[in-house]
Design brief:
The chain is of the alpha/beta class. The chain has eight helices and eight strands; from the N terminus they run αααβαββαβββαβαβα. Strand 4 and strand 5 form a beta hairpin. The radius of gyration is 70 Å and the shape is rod-shaped.
Length: about 325
């Protein structure tokens, strides 16, 4: 069976070869004419290529191609330059905008800094003005206070009755170191409010200062003109009556703690003012103790005992 198939294929091959051969033979003249035509065309083309016309046309074509590419190259270069220029312009614009923004920021910061400086300067001026105004008021206050104190003659007076003062005078006295106390007055025979300023570097109490002032008022009330106050030596108060000098010693109890000094004081008074001196004791309970050394009186009997002293002298 296999052998039979091979024989059939070989037969078919020979048939095809015979048919192709017959076809080629039948068209041999056409093939020859076609080949001759091709050969003739090739010779014509070869002749044309070797002719001047071909080279002229070729030169024109090549020139046109070169010109085309040159034009394209120029356009490309120009386009790239334009693009580069645009990029440069965009960068410059962006740079300017950044610089502008920076300048605006710097300007804003500078403006804010100047505003802060201006606010500080305004604040400093306000502070200076307030300080100056305060200093001016304090100066005026000080001047007014000096005027008030000079009119009150505080340089020589240490006690002021409150009822004799107005509010400005009271304020000025307080600022000058005067203190308000209530003491029994030997003239009015009652407690009265007064302002007292203690002596600096001296041992006199406010009670002692008040009693000296109170007794002097009483003496003036009794018509005695010559009255002297002694801060350190001698009696506390001396006065002249009927051509004789009298002495008054104000005691608050301190001298009782120094018996030797008390005896010396009594000896001095007996020698200088025999039967013409008197202890005025601030504390009624201490009157009997001072009475052992000399004539003594409590506050509520000062006027009575001074009158007796003047009458018996």
């Amino acid at each position: 069976m296999k052998q039979k198939d091979n024989d059939n294929s070989l037969t078919e091959f020979f048939i095809v070869v015979i048919i192709v051969s017959a076809f080629l033979y039948s068209v041999r003249k056409d093939i020859q004419d076609f080949w001759n035509s091709i050969t003739s065309s090739f010779r014509a083309i070869t002749h044309f290529i070797t002719s001047q016309l071909f080279f002229f046309i070729l030169a024109i074509v090549v020139s046109a191609i070169i010109i085309y590419f040159i034009v394209r190259l120029i356009k490309t270069i120009k386009r790239k330059r334009e693009e580069k220029k645009i990029k440069v312009e965009e960068r410059e614009k962006e740079k300017k905008e950044i610089e502008k923004a920076k300048n605006i920021k710097d300007f804003d910061e500078e403006l804010e800094r100047k505003e802060r400086i201006n606010r500080l300067e305004v604040k400093e001026r306000e502070i200076d003005e307030r300080v100056k105004e305060k200093e001016r008021k304090e100066f005026e206050k000080e001047q007014n206070q000096k005027i008030i104190l000079n009119r009150l003659e505080t340089w020589r007076k240490r006690v002021f009755k409150k009822s004799d003062l107005d509010e400005r005078q009271i304020k000025a006295l307080k600022e000058d170191g005067f203190q308000q106390v209530n003491q029994f007055d030997v003239l009015e025979r009652k407690f009265i409010p007064v302002f007292i300023k203690p002596y600096e570097n001296m041992n006199h109490s406010r009670e002692h200062i008040f009693l000296v002032w109170s007794v002097k008022r009483l003496l003036e009330h009794l018509g005695i003109d010559i009255i002297e106050e002694h801060l350190t030596k001698g009696a506390d108060i001396t006065f002249k009556y009927n051509k004789k000098w009298f002495a008054l010693e104000i005691e608050t109890g301190k001298l009782l703690h120094a018996p030797k000094q008390l005896k010396e004081k009594v000896n001095y008074l007996n020698k200088q003012y025999p039967n013409r001196w008197l202890f005025i004791v601030s504390n009624e309970k201490l009157v009997s103790k001072y009475a052992d050394y000399g004539l003594s009186t409590p506050r509520n009997r000062v006027q009575e005992n001074i009158e007796k002293l003047l009458k018996n002298a």
